[in-house]
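Appendix B, Record 12. Input sequence as logged:
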Amino acid sequence: MKKIICTLVIILSLFELSRSQSCLPDGITFATQGSIDSFQLNYPGCTEILGNVIINGGDITDLGGLSVVTVVEGRFSVNNCENLLSMTGFENLESIGDNCTFYNNDALIDFTGMDNLSSLQGNLHIAGNQKLTGLDGFENLTYVDNLSVIGNDSLSSLTGLSGITTVGGSLQVLLNQKLSSLAGFENISYLGDDLHIGGNIGLTSITSLSSLSVIEGDLFIEDNDALPSLAGLHNITAIENSVLIGYNDVLSDLSGLESLSAIGRNLQIISNSSLTSIAHLNNITEIERDLVVNNNPLPSLGGLDNIVSVGGRLFIARHPNLPSLDGLDQLAFLGGDMILMYNEILTDITALSNLPAIGGDLKMDYNYNLDDLAGFDQLVEIGGNMIILGHEKLTDLSGLDQLTSIGGDFKLSHNDTLSDISSLLQLTSVDDELIIRYNQNLTSLSGLDYIEPGTINSLEISNNPLLDYCEVQSVCYYLATPNAEAIIE
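Logged structural output:
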């Protein structure tokens, strides 16, 4: 009797082994419907595929021949299957050991058939599936490495991803024209890299991101034409890399970022054509690299009031409604360039009065209504170039009275009403070119008296019709230097 039982156990074990057989370590590619239909005949008992599975064929319409597959250890790709309507046939697939990609399947409606998939140890990439309306079929997934949903023109719902709680890498939702919300992302509480929401022209809400508190990479919210608010980001306190809020046409303020207190790299607010307030940034005290506020209809920089340090550039440009730099009053350290340009009604920069040095260039271009530089009263040193160009109402350089050193070029050009530069009397060093040109009302170079001639590498004084170029000793001494490089016109 015992021998009979043992024999039965062995037979059952062998039967079970034949039903659950590992196979195809080099993977398999299905390019035709026939190759799918004949799979079980060609590979009897093959349920756990050790290599990659690639399905890529224009005549493939039915995946039923693969219904025995339970595990794919390698990559799983379904690409360019223009007549495939669904993933029915993969009801028994439980695990994928690498990346999972669905690309350019023009007839695919959703992912029904993938419902038992509970383990994905790689990226999930869904892109260019023109008739895809939903992601139903992925409800049992809780983790992916990177998640990208890109360029699916008919996609209106992400709810099939509602089981995902952790994205180990980046999350990208880009160029999905009919997507109105991120419903389906409510349970994502950890993101290991970037969050990029962009080019979704119908997107009106991102409130489903409310479980996120930290983003380990970048936050990019850009080119979402109908997005009125960043509500949904209100629990985020830290972003490890950069923040870009740009090209969102109806975004009027940054409500949703009120809890944000730490940014590891850059903060860029660019070309949001309805943005009138950045007040919700008032918990930020430090920017590790660049602070860029460019081409927004802001009437004020209120919201930057608590920033004391910018490690890289400060770039404030193309604001037609900005009369002052109020909001930058606490700024005491700037490690890179300061660029102020094309701020048409800017008249007041006194908010910069706590800044003793600029680590890089000071570049001021075409701030047409600025008539003095009061606000630079504490500025002693500029590490790079100082360029003041195209100011129609600037009559003198008052505000630069404490400046002693320029680490690069000094260029003063096309300032039509500038008549007096005597506020530069403390300036002793220009470490490269000294260029003064096209200043129609400049009558004197008094202010350059104490520049050491040996610090000037070349000199250009040209097209200043009221100027006597050699009335200042430092200029004359430089001109007397053998082999001096100079243009005097």
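The longest strand covers residues 433-437.
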